[in-house]
Design goal:
The complex is a heterodimer. Chain A is of the alpha/beta class. Chain A contains 11 helices and 14 strands. By secondary structure, chain B is an all-alpha fold. Chain B has a single domain, classed as ABC transporter involved in vitamin B12 uptake, BtuC (Orthogonal Bundle), CATH 1.10.3470. In chain B, strands 1-2 form a two-stranded antiparallel sheet. In chain B, helix 2 (13-29) runs parallel beside helix 13 (265-284), helix 5 (91-116) packs antiparallel against helix 11 (206-232) and helix 8 packs across helix 9. Classes of the chains: A alpha/beta, B mainly alpha. The A-B interface holds A 40-42, 44-45, 48, 67, 69-70, 161, 164, 190-195, 198-201, 203-205, 207-216, 226, 230, 233, 237-238, 252-253 and B 30, 32-33, 35, 37-42, 44-45, 48, 129, 132-133, 136, 140-143, 145, 156, 228, 231-234, 236-239, 241-242, 276, 279-280, 283-284, 286, 289-290, 292-293. Chain A: This is Ribose transport system substrate-binding protein.
């Protein structure tokens, strides 16, 4: 009896919740959307919450975060194919391989399944509907400018970069060099240290750098997640606050280094916003009601002609307590204006 | 036999010569090379690689390969991280359990190899995937950060240029040298690798020895994982991803026979020193990032070639 009563109450609450949900959600949909990173990486962890929030906020049947077991193109494409057979109707993909992913996206397009590049772009020509990610060139440029400012406008810097095979690494190197070039020789680059995306490799290379040249270096600009963490930790171990560090992303170790003065700042990206807005837009596209505008204000990048900046900002001691609110506002702004700016809807 | 002939007969002599040349060259070209902090950084870099090289060396000794070293190391790393951060286990409890997990992983590799009769190459290739899968399933690629401060402090502690982290690998090296040279299972291990048929006719329990080699290999992978976690200050799911190539490079530069039966603790240890020296030199020399991998490969190849030349001169070939 008690069970039946509680069951009835549960059903009543469920119906009430559904009705309430229907009132607040603009348009419930039957779409099943998958957000797929290139492989396991802490950067993408916020996508899981973004997927859950987007599913709830936009009344989508399912938004799931699915991670390939390794950073390999074939594992990512096999995962996509497997999800297609399970009835997924749209995909938000971080292209682990910017060119290699395109054949899979073409197959999806052929089957009427839209895909968008999130966090990183596929190389044009591509059937990706758009690319929503960090403008890596701009982020590296702004980060280097912030570093130069923290160094007092002069000195020698080292650039810590990610995977050399990632085309974005070259963009970041160019951006760092541009910012340095604007100092008219007051700042110089000692070297670019690359392939520091694995923790142990980063530890070995960064500590070797500090061991040999710490007295000759005035600043470190890191444009990848792992070396930012390792550099922050190494400077703390060294007890060195003279060398200025500007990293990327908001790993707790980097944030603690900013609080304690071992890092000048870090360039925040917006992984949550990429997942959240990506799922929202993919739902609109998968429903068939909307298509992307050809003449929308896309940003042209070396990789694609359909880029949208998901937002970046410098986290420093001044805004470390409030930067998450700033990112939320950026996300909200992109989401609320996306339909009008970038889509044609029936 | 002259001193020179005796020296050239030692399998570590060519590597030692390469190390001396490297040290002199780097010291001459980069004044920072011999600073206390740089020496500390280099010695700290030996720690994990040394133990990982020994882990592979043991399976090479019986003529097998262990492709799951890195994956098992990663699993142990996140296991001890999870035990200390999430379950609140003290260091004295978490580390022995971590070692047991490593030994168990190795035991599974060994048992599967001898019971199925399938080559260890295939078995460990499969278990590597399984270990990585468990790692990612548990962590979802999020590291464990909040480790006991005493444990993390051990990873960075040093006495002048000597890192405390180097103490366990040195102990492991001494015990391993003793095990292989002076104990019955150690000699049997080399006998099985050198001539399995003769070893079997001598009454050596072949399967038991292969299982022992894999179990010890797993145990050493766990030691490497613990050192890596202490060194990095967090239990990263990516620990072990870069181990495989170095695990083979060091024993092979050190003259280990891929067919089994011949390994050298001293030469393997010196090979690790040489590899770390090359890596350190790359940073000091500010090599163009697009050419780092090529130079690293070329220099390692040169080291293998030098040792091969020594072996030919010494009449070993």
């Amino acid at each position: 009896m008690t069970t039946r009563l509680s069951g009835a109450l549960c059903r009543a609450f469920s119906i009430a919740a559904l009705l309430a949900g229907a009132a607040t959600v603009a348009q419930a949909s039957d779409n099943k959307i998958a957000l797929i990173p290139g492989g396991p990486h802490p950067y993408f962890a916020p996508w899981e919450q973004a997927a859950a929030d987007a599913q709830k906020d936009f009344g989508i049947a399912a938004v799931d975060f699915k991670v390939p077991s390794e950073w390999k193109l074939n594992l990512q494409t096999e995962l996509v194919e497997s999800l297609v057979t399970q009835g997924y109707t749209a995909f938000g993909i971080f292209p682990g391989d910017a060119v290699g992913i395109n054949s899979t996206v073409e197959e999806l397009e052929g089957a009427g399944i839209p895909a968008a590049a999130l966090a990183g772009c596929a190389q044009d020509p591509t059937k990706m509907q758009f690319c929503l990610g960090t403008d890596v060139y701009n982020s590296a440029y702004l980060g280097t400018k912030a570093l130069i400012e923290a160094m007092g406008g002069k000195g020698k810097i080292v650039h810590l970069a990610g995977l050399l095979v990632d085309p974005n690494t070259k963009l970041r190197m160019d951006a760092v060099e541009k910012a340095v070039g604007e100092t008219n020789g007051a700042v110089s680059i000692v070297q670019h240290i690359t392939d520091t995306d694995a923790q142990e490799a980063a530890d070995q290379k960064i500590n070797a750098l500090l061991g040999a040249q710490k007295d000759q270096i005035d600043g470190l600009i890191s444009t990848a997640y792992i070396p930012s963490v390792v550099a922050a930790k190494s400077l703390r171990n060294l007890g060195d606050k003279r060398i200025k560090l500007v990293g990327i992303d908001d790993d707790p170790i980097v944030l603690d280094a900013i609080k304690d003065g071992f890092a000048a700042g870090t360039m925040a990206q917006n992984p949550y916003g990429q997942g959240y807005v990506g799922a929202y837009v993919l739902d609109l596209l998968a429903g068939g009601g909307c298509t992307v505008k050809a003449d929308a204000p896309w940003i042209q990048t070396p990789q694609t002609a359909h880029f949208i900046d998901s937002g970046t900002l410098l986290i420093s001691a001044a805004n470390i307590a409030s930067y998450k609110d700033d990112l939320k506002k950026i996300t909200s702004d992109i989401q609320s204006s996306f339909k009008d700016k970038y889509l044609d809807c029936k | 036999m002259t001193l020179g002939q005796r020296l050239i007969a030692n399998e570590w002599s060519a590597i030692a010569v390469a190390i001396v040349i490297g040290v002199v060259g780097l010291a001459a070209t980069s004044p920072a090379f011999l600073t206390e902090f740089n020496l500390y950084v280099m010695m700290r870099s030996f720690c994990v690689v040394l133990v990982v090289a020994f882990a592979q060396m043991l399976t090479l000794a019986v003529g097998q390969l262990n492709l799951s070293i890195g994956a098992l190391g990663g699993l142990v790393a996140i296991a001890i991280g999870g035990m200390m951060e999430v379950l609140g286990f003290p260091i004295a409890v978490a580390l022995p359990i971590g070692l047991a997990i490593g030994a168990l992983g190795g035991l599974i590799n060994g048992l599967l190899t001898v019971r199925t009769g399938i080559n260890g190459f295939i078995i460990t290739l499969a278990t590597a995937s399984a270990f990585t899968g468990i790692n990612l399933g548990i962590t979802e690629s999020i590291p464990f950060y909040n480790l006991p401060s005493a444990f993390v402090a051990f990873g960075t502690a040093r006495l002048s240029a000597f890192p405390m982290l180097l103490i366990p690998p040195v102990i492991v090296a001494l015990l391993l040298a003793l095990f292989l040279a002076r104990t019955v299972p150690g000699r049997q291990l080399l006998a099985v690798g050198g001539n399995p048929h003769a070893a079997q006719l001598s009454g050596v329990h072949m399967n038991g020895i292969v299982v022992l080699a894999h179990t010890l290999s797993g145990l050493l992978a766990a030691v490497g994982a613990i050192l890596a976690v202490a060194q990095l200050g967090s239990a990263q799911p990516t620990i072990g991803q870069d181990w495989l190539i170095m695990s083979f490079a060091a024993p092979i530069i050190g003259g280990a026979a891929l067919t089994g039966g011949h390994v050298s603790v001293a030469a393997t240890a010196l090979a690790v020193v040489l590899i770390v020296l090359i890596q350190n030199g790359m940073v000091l020399a500010q090599v163009d990032p697009y050419w780092v991998q090529f130079l690293l490969g070329a220099l390692i190849l040169a080291a293998v070639g030098l040792n091969r030349l020594r072996a030919v001169r010494a009449g070993e070939a």
